[in-house]
Amino acid sequence: MGVDGRLRAVVGLAQAMAAAATPRDSVRAAARGARLAMDGSFAAISAWERERGCLRVLVNEGGRRPGEEEFPEDESYPVHDFPEITEFLHERWAGGGGPHAWVESAAGDRPGRRGESLRRRGRGSCVVAPVVLSGRAWGELYVARDEGLPGFDADDAEFAAVLAAVVAAGLAQTERLEEARRLAFTDPLTGLANRRAVDMRLDEALEEHRRTGVVVSLVVCDLNGLKRVNDTLGHAMGDRLLERFGSVLSLCGAMLPGALVARLGGDEFCLVGVGPSADEVVRVGEELCTRAAELELGEGVACGVASTGDPIGPVKSSRRLFRLADAAQYRAKAARSAQPVVAGRDTAVVRLADAAAQEAPGERRRFRGRR
Question: Strand, coil or helix: what is 305?
Fold first, then answer.
């Protein structure tokens, strides 16, 4: 590949990473772009996990061998098996040199397991380039060629270092976007999802419900006693109560595959279930009430459930499901119920929600203070 071809390959790699929708897509685009640019048979991107002292493989791309998965769950290698990464990234680099790549050969005699790994997998040579983010080694780019193909040389190593820099820039952009996405859809105090994330999930779930009939359930929780804790013990203790209840909600939500748990704001939380039956969701609500009552702070939780698996009538929008769950939660709070109130099983809930809809069409109705 000539200079023009390599330039096009660099541009193509950068564009592919920029177009990636998720971190997984980004590392796959990076590996594929680097493999094509280097005329390689196989490429991998690995992250250096310092706390574990290992290189964890994020993606294997190209001609994979038995045992090599595209996105391995836990393929990792102790760094001490690959001493060159610490040698290059600490000794030589710290001595004033910049990050650079190196070539390994199946026929070579360098220490470490690179050569052994190449021979075992029928590959003739590889080039390894550190990926550096914010001045720190993040991981490595690895590109290999099969046996019988021309081996990599010093020029290839130099080009691989350029590609690794492009990959690093793409990963940095992905991380910034992920952080922005996290901030946009996460409650900063509890780390749970926020109202924006709930609205998006419910809209998607109800669209699926209309297509396939999948059960969609919403549990709305009102944490009792938060104001008393704030007034008597201070807001720091109130925040502690919110965090503790958030942890309990997360634990209970994990009992329902794919559930989304969220803090709506103030003392209000919710859980969105898509798929599990209404009975399963109610059982989780019961467990949630029991665990909330055992917290060292607060006065338990008022819990309302609305599910398309119960007789609540057609649910054409998330507003109706919210209104039903709100009405059920209001009934639970008014009755000081230690268990969830379920729309459709308590017929007064549906009437209350319908009356609120007539008073304030198109709005989520709050029932607190209603007589």
Answer: strand
